[in-house]
Amino acid sequence: MKISVVDVEQVARLARLELTFEEKELFATQMDAILDYVEKLKELNTEGIIPTSHAVPMENAFREDLVMPSIGLAKALANAPGRSDNFFSVPKVIE
Hints:
Layout: H1 5-14, H2 21-42, H3 73-77, E1 83-84, E2 87-88
Helix pairs in contact: 1-2
């Protein structure tokens, strides 16, 4: 699959990135190399291979869920940039 500069421009537009022409050419080349490698990987026979998410066996590393007292309202709001009574105060972003 050949990635063109037009394809890179489309992706950059969707990501709202401004790229120079040199960057667009570089990224087109790099993206094309990545896709070529993926095509090469598709040629591998993976029948009978169990999918894994880690290269080594892992166990759950989470701690036991224990009921504990909360930190309290004063500590929770101590570093708040804005406060309104017992709540965080944030600027309005929707009109």
